[in-house]
Here is the input.
Amino acid sequence: MADFDEARLHLLVAKMLGDLGGAYSVPTVRIGFRLGLFDALHEGGPATVAELAARAGGLAERYVREWALAQAASGYLDYDAAGERFSLSPEQAMVFGVKDSPVYLEGAFDLAAAMIEGEPKVEAGFRDGSGVAWGESAGCLFCAVGAFFRPGYVNNVVQSWLPALGGVQDKLKAGAKVADIGCGVGFSTLLMAEAYPQSHFVGFDFHEPSIAQAREHAAAHGVADRVRFETAAAKDIAERDFDLITVFDCLHDMGDPRGCAAHVKGLMKPDATWMIVEPIAADRPEENIGNPVSRLYYNASTMICVPTSLDQEVGEALGAQAGEAKLTALLHDAGFSRVRRATEGPFNMVLEACA
Here is the structure.
């Protein structure tokens, strides 16, 4: 065995223990969300094991005790040893209790579980180069992805992303025709529709189960009179004359993002805008290494984004960390003369493309 630095080894092992502790927490955290344990603490305040088990609908106390201690050991709950009571701090509540918080992470834990479920299919792709169809790697991958992105959309789409685009907000307030391509289960489409009641929206996605859920959401929100959801791949969309086209975190998932970009240009009015929301990333891989956000995205890209793209026509497999320079070049090649980064956040960058 080659000589090694014992201090560096200890640091690596300590890091691995922290990482494994987080990985081991995925099933217990998901149980806490599903059984309402986090909600019971958030809504009812500090509780003993007996009180928490009762609040959550009469759960078995022995399970609840071990669960609560596991969460406290992870730093996800606070524990008062003197009173033997568990609680959510305001900061913990932002992650586990407040559903419209920008850092509410129920969907993130579900997404982690979905990636584990999809592991055998992705491993097969490593061996033969094949892809894995969207939604086929895990039972409800598309549900988990929708839930993962929802907090970011709730807190950014209307508040900062759309206002950062030149002249778009005025058009939406007056009444615009909008296409949301790759809309998934419709969260992004419905957020825009509720904020701009004079405008009409069409959500497109090639995944029929996602569109079915999106239609249910539209009906539940009472906006079905001006929001439609249609099953269609990006390059198959025939409807035209849109004032605004949006794609949220999905251009890199497409098999043929260049063909999609060229097709989108033909769907737009001459003065229209295309808003492309993509995972934030530096242009060079070495600049992303060591970044915790890029770490999440590279792993998700390995398990979801690249396999999804490889399953489709062309299979360019841009990956979730393509970077602004590569995306901008792609848009210029498709005929967009003006491309700029309109705004950004800790998890996304927003590009604006105009003819």
